Amino acid sequence: MEYAILDTSFSPSSPSSVSSLITAARSSYSKLVSRLQTEFTATQNEEDLWRDGYASYRGDLMFILGQGLHRLLTQIGKATQYASSQGLSEAKMELRRQEHALRQMTKQMNQLEADKRSLMDRVSCADKTMTSTAR
Question: Which residues form a coiled coil (predicted)?
Answer without folding.
Answer: 88-129
